[in-house]
Amino acid sequence: MENQLDRFEIKMKELFAEKQIPEICYHNLDHTQLIVEQVKKMGAFYKLNDQELEDLVYAGWFHDVGYWRGTDKGHEKQGAEFAHKMLKEMGVSSERIQKIQSGILATQVPQKPQSLFESILCDADLSHFGMGNFREHTLLLKKEKECVHGKEIPLHSWLIGTREFMNNHSYHTDYAKEFLQQGKEKNLRYIEEEIKLMEDKTEKKSKKKSKDKKSEKGIETMFRVTSKNHLELSSIADNKANIMISVNSIIISIVVTVLIRKLEEFPNYTIPAILLISTCLGAMVFAILATRPKVTQGKVSKESIAKKESNLLYFGNFYDMSLKEYEEGMHEMMEDGEFLYDSMIRDIYFLGKVLAVKYKLLRKSYNVFMFGFIVSIISFLIASLFFDPLQY
Questions:
Q1: pTM for this structure?
Q2: CATH architecture type of domain 4-179
Q3: Which end of the chain is more exposed for a tag (fewer CB within 10 A), N or C?
Q4: pLDDT tens digits, residue range 196-245?
Q5: Dist. CA 41–CA 34, nearest whole Å
Q6: Greatest CA separation found in the chain?
Q7: For the chain, what are the domain ranges?
């Protein structure tokens, strides 16, 4: 036949099923049954009489019913009040009820049990510190705290808090010191290792982030310096071309205005004059070609932007686009770092291609001027020394 304790346990299971809310995922029926099993083992270890064992079971069942309200504040007091009401209805004596209530209140942290009965309840309540499935218990408790307080708790912070709590905690009974203390120390070592691993990982991430920032800054500096160098080289090429155009223009002007009119008197200078004018014209043509602007089609398609093949940084690629199309393209490029860097790379590449053409034409201009001018001067000398104007 069922005795009073059996009927009580059936009733408590029904109450847990009815009143327990989902947010309280740790201090629930499973946790309560675990504590009840622990107090039974510890009571048997100390060879307590049947009434004391029964009172421990009552206290174990009631110690966390205060969580039915969905909060962890004052749950011990709520549990003690519920125990008084229910045990009184069951006909339990006032003396026993008072003892059970004292045991429930003793589980409040910081624990300060005053008797073996209270010490057993306190050690049973925190027995998971020394169990093999400690990790599952502490993570479940973390989840419950997050649900109750409505905010996420970082795992690192939780483990540090748990470590501090466990270091400040001491078991009260010889049973717990013999059967739980060793497991507790093992679990403390596990927490220490987890904290160290997380801190090492955070430190590595911090170093990597710092390195990435330096790398990104270096990339930006590289693009800035390279673009500046290209622009300066282009400016130098334009200046050299302008010098060449100016010098040859002056020479042609002098030859046309002075020497051409004297050719009737000095016909032997006709060929040297033609050579000199041809040299100056050739040098000017190459210099002008080097400075002649070249503009592309002026419109980038949506397809090329989607394929990340366009360069919106050069005016020649967007001057014929509408403002809206250009803004959309620029926003898409700014939101995609790879697209932005690719555009800058293309910009530098094509600047380099333009510079290569400029310097090739400029080199040709200088070569034509140098060799043509030498040949022209030599021809003038030959015409002056070996040919008499009268022979013509």
A1: 0.55
A2: Orthogonal Bundle (1.10)
A3: N
A4: 888 888 777 766 665 555 567 777 787 778 878 878 888 888 888 889 88
A5: 11
A6: 154
A7: 4-179, 233-391
